[in-house]
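Q: Entry one of two.
A:
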Amino acid sequence: MEYEFETVNCNLCNADNYQKISNKGKFGLPTNVVICKVCGLSYLNPRWDKNSYLQFYQNEYDKYYRPKIQLDSSLNKEAVNPIEVRLKRLDLFPKNVERILDIGSGEGNNLIHFKSIFQESKLYAIEPSLASQIILKNNDVTILGSDVDAEWNDNINYKFDLIIMRHVLEHFTDPIKIMKKVRSVLKPNGIVYIAVPNNLKPTQNLNKSWFRNVHTYYFNKYTLDNLNKLVGLEILKMQEGDEFNMGEVYLIARKNDSQLSPVFSEKHYQEQLTILNQKLKLENSIPYKLTYLSKRVIRKVLSLTKNKSH
């Protein structure tokens, strides 16, 4: 299908004042990265419109990002679950969980892991992939919808103790709108876990892997803090990277009825801009390109050797 494009203002401060960063991304798909000069949020502009993204997630996403998905897969408990470890490490692991919602759940591995801990809990998911939906349904996960932008929150009369949003916030076309929905279905003492790539500490080649057309936003600790304040969530703890993923920033938040004011600072913009420009300059240097190419060749040779041995 043909994809339609749209232009957007900054989702956090609504400014239309940005610096262009790159127009290249993973798989060669159109990826126009800019950074807001007012608040420092990085995002795609122009980008595919909402319908184009929905069609891509339902029909094309698995081909690019989940090529090995199996329709007869069953949900498996991971030996070590990063979310569980992080919640316990920060002393925020919930004691009683009746309902768990995973937004962008994929095949549901996080859900089944927490089900093994809270055995009486009920599992829910919002997941656009049709293949993943089949697996979820086969494992007693209630699917609230395929489109997080739809009014899924209007059709439920219960709230959640734990909402998981692992590497999904960066995919939204309107994070503010969706996070307000998330807040509306969170119990007063419930928590939301959010993890995203850390744009202050990118661990991959920007133009070849870090920038992706499915990542409409690129967050850091400053922009995450502002986002949560704007929607009425209080960040209890936020961490940048650990043994599970050094290029990640994650947080745990809960409802806050007080009016929290965001802080939009040019310093945050300058810090983010400097980091991205320095990394792009490094990646465009001849020594870096030669090293990057040699690593790819070595990985390819090792992969071919491994396949032949089988």
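Q: Entry two of two.
A:
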Amino acid sequence: MTVVPAGPQGWPAPGTDGPAMLPVVAHGGHGADGLGLLPLLPVVLLAGSYLLAAFRDPRGWDHRRSAAWLVGCALLAVAVGPLGQVPDDPRGHMAQHLLLGMLAPLGLVLGAPVTLLLRVAPPSVRRAVGRLLRARPLHLIAHPVTAALLSTGGLALVLLTPLYAAAERQPTLHHAVHLHYVAAGYLLAWSLAGPDPAPRRPGLAVRIGALLGAAAGHSALAKYLYANAGTLPPGLTDPDAGAFRSAAQLMYYGGDIAELLLAVALFASWYNSPARRRSAIRRAAGDLVSRRS
């Protein structure tokens, strides 16, 4: 930050060059004086706590799960670290959305943190987690259709209302929007493809339908933003239409990649599920009996 002392009536003070300026804090980091890196602290705590729990697992924790969790944490760190410090740019904000709301949550979900917690926590904590998983409100929130609506609908609320402009001016609201991205993205990935236990997870057809619906909503929102660049999001002063069109393209193609990865995780979780394996064993046994008879 550069400040040129102001003289009378706004002219430069003697001995200075350039117009008088007031101190300005760059939006990108939503903080100054060393506070810009503060959002990295929760990411470090997430990574460290997980690794400590994995080390304490008496049966030995799957290193692939640990790797997935660390990849998710690394993507979070990129989103709130380097991308969080860049100046105002809708393309940077859209990259943050893709990392926080789609890519990082998938890595975190594939890390199976709830399963790890149940393996290392004391009985009282395991009972509390079990009660939470059986709670009726969680049954509604964790349904894939609800999770898809929260994810895509939340993004639509940000882009189609003055919420985006308000978050530009208020750091607390800005971080709250990012927290929603992470929570909604985690909920969607968990409900569709999570290895952790989930309350009354529906069958494959319902989960595929929810994923397709979320993907369609995401791409439609990207096209709408592209077509209305310069007027959306509302409430901005002199928005850069070209930058918002580029952001919409990033949202469209980046979203396709993230949704493809989520689809791969969904089919992999279904293929490796104990229920599918039991069904395959029963069918094989039935075929064997029928051939012998």
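A: Comment on entry two: Confidence is low (pLDDT under 50) at residues 1-29. DSSP finds twelve helices and no strands in the chain.
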